[in-house]
Amino acid sequence: MQIRRAAVLGGGPGGLYAARLLKLAQPSCDVVVHEQGDPDTTFGFGVGLAAGTQRKLEAADADTLRDLVAAGCRHDMTMSVGNRSVRVRNDRLIGVARTELLAVLQRHAEKAGVRIEYGTRRAADELDADLVVAADGVSSATRSAGDFGEHIEVGRGLYLWCGAGFALPDAVFAPVETEHGVFVTHAYPYSGGRSTFLIETDEETWRRAGFDASTDATPPDDSDITSLRYLETVFAERLRGHPLIGNRTRWTRFRTVRCERWSSGRTVLLGDAAHTAHFSVGSGTKLAMEDAISLVEALAGEPDANAAFARYEATRRPAVERLQELARRSQLWWESFPSRLDLPVERLMVAYMTRAGNVPLARFAATSPEVVTAAAEQYAHATPPGRDLVDWVLEQPLRHGDTTFPRRVLASRPDGLAMPTFTDAVSDPWGGAGDAVVERARRARQEGADGFRFAGPDDRPAVLTRLDLAERVRAEVGGLIVVEGPAELRADLAAGLVSARCDLVSFTEEEA
């Protein structure tokens, strides 16, 4: 498809990258980026670029990636709970200042011949263009005004973004218990000798700390100074005496955006305007820039806009929806994070890495053997072998009260134990349906139940959700917890055991 004039709404990473790639692919096309903000004003702190994203950017535009890598700083990852810490390598992960990221992308877009116009809000229907790329972010006015079938889901937890004027040695995940409740930071270094501090908490803690009032009192363009000053004391050890830096910093809830359609007429959505995935999987910039690659390829390979948009969406939607599902699981895990603070930090790190089902236990063991070995020893009070970890986990004995199980896989229901079975179809184990299961389990325990068995469909999403629901009941109600699933998902079930989501597993009869 040959395009004469293209307009891009939004001068963020996705919009600028799409503009550059389109201009490189079609040099005769007049490409203009319309950014409502000032060129010297940006919001946010650091942006992370993982190895997989870097490979895709290198294939699409090696020159831009080279400058991004040169501007970034590589770091590993540490989890700290109390006075215990555990560190894992995170090869090729880099942190880049958002200001520097945008400067690199602006420079390369203009070098390719893209015009960038700042300071004016433009709408799709007022632009004289054959193609309008709406990359105007999570609050996209284009999406809201158009026929895209938008659906927005708001999370339970609250978070804020802030920064600090020094570079941490590693990315760090660290919870701190306060008089109000638990606050957790996800912090990481980025270029320029600074660090991003993202801080999360639950609504009850947020209200007890009085941050509902400070949020209401903070104007939209200002930062919540009350929260920042308090959080400086909470994370004083991590901050090493540095203050927290605000930049329109205020508490908010994550919005997951989904659209039934990514295009309408000559307009196509890109990045956060089309879809979002929770920040705990580091996805916003990644998704937007990968969208840009796919969109430009589709435009070059199809005869008209409708065909190109259909190809773009058919190519990108499966990958986006897969990441959104991983992000949904990760978001639920983080929103319930304080319930896991009794775990040793090594087992907590395994729980973190396997939380969304994207990192198999054996693969994590291959990249971080010291962490997984320590977690396995805590789980079984024995040293695991160097290979066949999943089988070893399943074959370990368990002593529960007066009962000893020779292995963690039950072949039949244990004699003499009262264990009701839950088969509830629950999509959110920490939502209302999960609350109902917990209440039923609590009543059953009061009436003498020794534990609970969780069963249901054999598909992988159902088994992963079952493990999460079992974990919640195990933490809040107690008792012996058994999760049923097919033998083909033995690796997921083994990860659930090491992560303390359950005590025993049972293979369905068809797979036994």
UniProtKB/TrEMBL annotation:
Domain FAD-binding, first and last residues per copy: 7-324
Key word Repeat present: no
Keywords: NAD, Oxidoreductase
MF terms in GO: FAD binding; oxidoreductase activity
One Pfam assignment: FAD_binding_3
InterPro entries, alphabetized: FAD-bd (IPR002938), FAD/NAD-bd_sf (IPR036188), PheA/TfdB_FAD_monoxygenase (IPR050631)
Stretches of the chain forming a coiled coil according to its record: none
Keyword Oxidoreductase carried by entry: yes
PANTHER family: 3-(3-HYDROXY-PHENYL)PROPIONATE/3-HYDROXYCINNAMIC ACID HYDROXYLASE (PTHR43476), BLR0106 PROTEIN (PTHR43476:SF4)
Name of the protein described by the UniProt record: Oxidoreductase
Protein's organism: Prauserella flavalba
